[in-house]
Write a structure and sequence with these properties.
The protein is mainly alpha-helical. The protein is built from 16 helices and no strands.
């Protein structure tokens, strides 16, 4: 087997395939932004950013994190029952949130400084978050089956459908097109994922009421110690959107959202791609009692190179590049990106490492970090009225501190695991490698 075949068939090949698909999917989204920013007012993007933030918060605990356990069982039946359980929990939680939104909608509008003319968008939030949660569970089943090519295609189908609907509704001057496009993208993503899942051998007959009860008890720690902290973690990442929209304006929120899409969303896609491969790879190595640290550090090196290249471009030329690509309204977003990019390296490393908490069932440790992250971000509410630039600088400092802590915890978990391997090998009379 040639070197190229070894690379393409190994975990590096899987990572590269997912990163390539993520990059292509994000390129589709960015190219659509070139058009959409000329079809919709900045306030529409600000309103969409608020709605998407709420959706992501609900999705963070929409299955009580049982989907994270889908990759862990050795047999297929428990994994299938975890998938079915995730679907049922998502339906119940999102129906509950629909009633909550109906009741507190006027309060939300005032609290979030949300444009009243778009208030009915809130009713679409539970539907979108439910479909999103469905796909998240399916995605973990595809990871379990090493179906990384299928996952890659799903990313592109989602972005294509999302951008297409937003474009056609934009030329008809319908602001709700941004929300409908978001729904269309997640819906096609779910349908494509379901099709790929059945192609990979999934059978509905594996799911049973008793089986779902069994896995619900067996993996209860994921719900008990993972769901609420995960929600806090997601809320922490999205809290600046709410604060900016409330303190400043929906227009500034729109500028911030563009800088986040161009800079932070690709980071999220890359780290998510690596995390998906890590989840399967690390679990397989754990079951075999094989070391992990070397692969982790090697991947860290690649990620640092990516981050440094981005910083070299954004720091000196961010405003000009954004203005060139997105027009005069893009300049302000470019200035925001020049600040946000300083957290890029450490955030990329930490975000890619999150699966370690779940693979090694250190959900409590992960919950501790997520709670700390939430409290640190929440502290920004104590800031006096300052300029948006100073607000973003404080945000970057807080993120760097929190993600350094995350990496320290991840390395400690892996070191303890590998020390256990050495002890077992020595006790079995196997010489230390």
């Amino acid at each position: 087997m040639s070197v190229l075949r070894k690379i393409s068939s190994g975990y590096i090949g899987s990572i590269l395939a997912l990163i390539s698909a993520s990059t292509l999917a994000q390129m589709i989204a960015i190219l659509m932004q070139l058009v959409l920013r000329r079809l919709y007012a900045p306030a529409v993007f600000g309103a969409l950013a608020v709605c998407v933030s709420i959706i992501e918060i609900i999705v963070a605990f929409g299955t009580l994190r049982y989907e994270n356990a889908i990759v862990l069982p050795e047999k297929e039946e428990p994994a299938a029952n975890l998938l079915g359980l995730s679907f049922i929990i998502s339906i119940l939680i999102n129906v509950f949130f629909l009633f909550v939104i109906i009741i507190i909608q006027p309060f939300l509008i005032k609290l979030l400084n949300f444009p009243p003319e778009y208030a009915w968008w809130f009713y679409l939030i539970p539907l979108i978050s439910m479909v999103f949660s469905f796909y998240q569970a399916i995605n973990y089943w595809l990871i379990r089956r090493k179906a990384f090519s299928a996952i890659s295609w799903n990313k592109m189908w989602r972005r294509g459908a999302e951008g297409g609907v937003q474009f056609f509704m934009g030329i008809t001057k319908m602001p709700v097109g941004m929300m409908i496009g978001t729904l269309a993208g997640h819906l096609l993503n779910f349908l494509s994922g379901a099709y790929q899942m059945y192609r990979k051998g999934f059978k509905y007959s594996m799911i049973s009421k008793s089986g779902m009860k069994s896995v619900m008890k067996e993996y209860a720690d994921f719900a008990r110690y993972g769901a609420f902290p995960s929600m806090l973690n997601t809320f922490s990442a999205l809290l600046p959107v709410f604060i900016i929209n409330r303190i400043y304006s929906e227009t500034i929120t729109g500028y911030f959202d563009l800088s986040r899409q161009v800079l932070l969303v690709p980071v999220a896609l890359i780290s998510a791609s690596i995390a998906q491969v890590f989840t399967e790879r690390f679990n397989a190595r754990k079951l075999k009692g094989e070391p992990i640290m070397r692969e982790l550090l090697r991947t860290y090196g690649v990620l640092l190179i990516i981050a440094v290249v981005a910083m070299i471009v954004i720091i000196p030329f961010g405003g000009e590049v954004f203005r060139l690509v997105f027009g005069k309204n893009g300049y302000e977003s470019g200035l925001y990106a020049r600040i946000l990019v300083f957290a890029l390296p450490i955030k990329l490393l930490a975000s890619s490492s999150i699966p370690v908490f779940y693979v090694f069932e250190k959900v409590k440790t992960g919950g501790f970090w997520q709670g700390f992250y939430f409290i640190a971000i929440l502290s920004m509410l104590l800031l006096p009225k300052i300029s948006i630039e100073k607000f973003l600088a404080f945000y970057v400092i807080v993120e760097i501190m929190c993600f350094i802590l995350c990496i320290v915890l991840v390395i400690r978990i892996i070191k303890k695991y590998e020390e256990g391997i050495v002890i077992r090998n020595n006790s079995d009379g196997i010489p230390k490698a």
